Amino acid sequence: MSLRNPLKALFYLNLLIVVLLIGYKAYLNFFETDFEAVHTEQVEQLHRMLDDRDTFSFAVVGNINNSVGIFERKMIPHLNASGVDFMVSAGNAVSGGGEDKYRALHGTLGHLEMPYLLTFGQHEYEDFGSFRFYEHFGPHFYSVTLGNSRLVFLDSTGKTPWQWQIRWLQDVLEQDDASHTFLFVGHPVMRSGQELLFTEESDFLQPPDFREQLLSLIDEHAVNMVFSANLTLFDRETRNDTTFITTGGAGGLVLNNETSFYHYVRVMVDEEGANAELVRMETNQNPVLKRLETFWFFVYSLFYVGYINFILLVSVLALIGIKLYTLVFVGHDYYPNYDLDPSPWLEKPLRVAMFTNNYLPFIGGVPISIDRLKRGLEAMGDQVQVVAPTYRDQPENEQTTVRVPSLLSMGVKREFRLANIFLARIRKQVRAFKPDIIHLHHPIWLGSLGLFMGRRLKVPVVYTYHTRLEHYAHFVPIPGTLFRNLISHALIKHFANKCDGVIVPTYSTEEYLRMIGVKSATYIQPTGIDYQRFNSVSDDAVATLKASLGIGEERVFVSVSRISSEKNIDFMIDAIASLKARATRPFRFLIIGDGHERDRIQQRIDSLGLQETISLLGAVPPDDMPIYYRLGDAFLFASKSETQGMVILEAMAAGLPVVAVRSSGIDDVVRQGYNGFKTPEKLALWRDKVALLLEDDELRRELGDNALAFARDYSIENFARDVRFFYATLLAAQEK
Predict the structure, then answer these.
(1) Plot region of 657 (φ>0 → left; ψ -120 to 50 → alpha; else → beta)
(2) In which element (H, E) is residue 522 found?
(3) Tens digit of pLDDT for each residue in 602-638?
(4) How far is CA 471 from each of CA 85, 113, 534, 634, rounded to the nearest angstrom?
(5) What share of the chain is helix, strand, coil (3-state, %, to 5)?
(6) Got the DSSP string for 381-407?
């Protein structure tokens, strides 16, 4: 385990290097000054220099391959001092046809103090490089007249049909009166006895018909010299009066023997003729390390501007190596540590800091859950500090709550607030509180600040997974499918794995977290309810509320949720409309809660003529909720975004059977035929279960009694005690 932190640091260092280098390559590709038609500029310079001269010299290089170690650092300074008038690449000036390779070559050639011309070779053609060569330099085949000489460049890659090139070349040669003709073709035309191992037929000019007709033209028109690259060697062959030279030693891999070595060819032209001279480049290599350095230069020059792609390659390999090491050699214990002793932490008061993106007086499942846990912990002698957004009608003189002003409020009633997490006083107040543990209730914003504070203060961090984020895609300003199917799950996984422990309300929720890759310790703990308060409502209070709502002898169905699309309220409205059309018994449906879609839902109720059946009661103070639950005969629910469905337990504590749509958070709480019914999201099935409770008084009473007994185990006291045990276990693990 001693290697774990250094490996982690090395992993992130390599990750940073990869990101920076990829960013740099992106900069070169998209932001650096563009260049085009470079050959036009080079030819103009050559004409200005040589039009009045019959004597000149030039260097021919092959297989530069974006070399830095050899070509840029050794060969270019030598060429600049050699006195040659210009340079010609016989092919493979780049190591590949990618944009970054062309830009790197352009930068390298900028060090030359002379004009240059390039042959379109195999590497220039690779990776869709043909259009880049055409755009940046010029045509794939062309000819240039300099003084009394002509230079002809052919495309040997197959990009341009060879028949067309032969016809074009024949016209050029027949009309040419130049004293000297030099032909440049990327692939060697002639085979020799000095070929390297693993040389294939495709390394030479193809197809055979192209080679034969080209040789015929060369013989007919007495071409002086033919230059090629593509093989990493130097070779000179003579056919009739034509010299065929293969030069492949300007960079990249060479074998450092008598055939394959670093070199270029110097060509001298005068009135008497043209001569080619081999110029070997001494790399001053140590004889012992000569072979190793050869391989090093191959790797060094194979990748864009040598060191950049080499470092990128090494960093990627290091990332893979570290990951493989941790998978294979670092032991993983997938079982809890049963040797931990949490008792010392259970015997003394704890200081708990909680971070949440919404809190009372905002009414919702998360704020109510936090408030209940806070009250339960404080009843056991713990101190709790809550860091939460500021609200207009929040309680005054809150001693244990750090309120954070909002940068932005969202929603029709400004119910979602983006707190200003950048205020220094928040961190100062949390540090002054000296928490033993930090409890987070959201995976973003204030939750992220809490995670940061936990790492800075070196205390365990607990995260409660309250919300299925994928059902809130409509609140996010990015494509809903992208957020729902990818981002939401990745966010939960990344955040949960950074925490020391995760509290989940149900077994199905824990299964979801494991499926998306959460590896942190998990603890299944449903949110507690104030069982006694929901179960001890007077009949007079219920009668008074019934009268105020104009309810007589009808059966009453109750639902509690935020009025928002993820709560699936439209489904319940459609089902109730269908039920009303066939029910023989009068009923009312009361929806308690508020939200940004309230106006739309009310319009839909009106359009269906359900004003007398369905009532939107708006938000109800938490202290009054037990009376509203007791008002009902059954509780209806269709949301599929819950992780627990706390309102279902509250309804059960008031003695109400439940009809719900089956989903995570519901499946573990509603027991089919015992305390209610759960159905697939199919309108007829759900409606029929509601109708059954409407018509069958005995069944409704039996399920209601069972619901009351089921809810008894979810008291706030039990809830706080169990969460406190998880806190103590994490503190014991940290101490160990």
Answers:
(1) beta
(2) strand 521-524
(3) 999 999 999 999 999 999 988 899 999 999 999 999 9
(4) 70, 64, 29, 26
(5) 45, 20, 35
(6) T-EEEEEEE--TTPPSS-SSEEEE-EE
Compute the distance between CA of residue 464 and CA of residue 451 in angstroms, rounded to an integer.
13
297 phi and psi angles, rounded to 5 deg: -65, -30
Give, as one character, the DSSP assignment of residue 88.
E
The one-letter code for the residue type at 182 is F
- Is the pLDDT reported for residue 34 higher than 70? yes
- For residue 182, list its beta bridge partners: 151, 225
Residues 264, 249: Cα–Cα separation, whole Å: 7
Helical segments of 530-568, H only = 531-535, 539-549
The pLDDT of residue 324 is 75
The contacts found for 164-172 with CB under 8 angstroms, 24 or more apart, are 165/141, 166/210, 166/213, 166/214, 166/217, 168/141, 169/214, 169/217, 170/217, 172/143
Largest CA distance in the chain: 124
Query: Which among 350, 369, 474 has a CA at the least distance from the CA of 731?
Result: 350
Half-sphere exposure of 694 (CA within 13 A, CB side): 23
Amino acid at 559: S
Whole-angstrom Cα distance, residue 403 to residue 417?
12
pLDDT in tens, 47-60: 999 988 889 999 99
Backbone angles phi, psi at 456, to 5 degrees: -65, -40
Q: Average the pLDDT over 219-231 and give the result.
A: 95
* Count of CB atoms situated within 10 Å of the CB of 241: 10
Residues forming a β-bridge with 61: 89
Instruction: Map residue 142 onto helix, strand or coil.
Output: strand
Question: How is residue 132 written in tokens?
Answer: 């880049």
Q: At residue 205, what is the residue type?
A: L
Rounded to two decimals, what is the model's pTM? Answer: 0.53
CB atoms inside a 10 Å sphere around CB 231: 25
- Phi, psi (rounded to 5 degrees) for 433: -70, -25
Cross-strand pairs, 502: 463, 522
Residue type, 133: F
Per-residue HEC secondary structure of 595-638 comes to CCCHHHHHHHHHHCCCCCCEEEEECCCHHHHHHHHHHCCEEEEC
Sheet order of strands, 521-524 included: 401-404, 383-389, 351-355, 437-440, 461-464, 501-504, 521-524
Within 10 A of 513 (CB to CB), how many other CB atoms are there? 20
Write the DSSP string, 84-101: -SEEEE-S--SSSSSHHH
Domain annotation for the chain: domains and CATH numbers: 33-284 (3.60.21.10), 343-524 (3.40.50.2000), 531-714 (3.40.50.2000)
The phi and psi torsions of 195 (rounded to 5 degrees) equal -70, 155
Name which of 560, 731, 556, 543 is nearest 646 in CA terms. Answer: 560
Contact between 591 and 615 (Cβ < 8 Å): yes
pLDDT in tens, 471-511: 555 556 566 676 667 788 889 999 999 999 999 988 888 88
Q: Which of 85, 65, 219, 237 is nearest to 146 (CA)?
A: 85
Cα–Cα nearest to 77, from 95, 53, 93, 59? 59
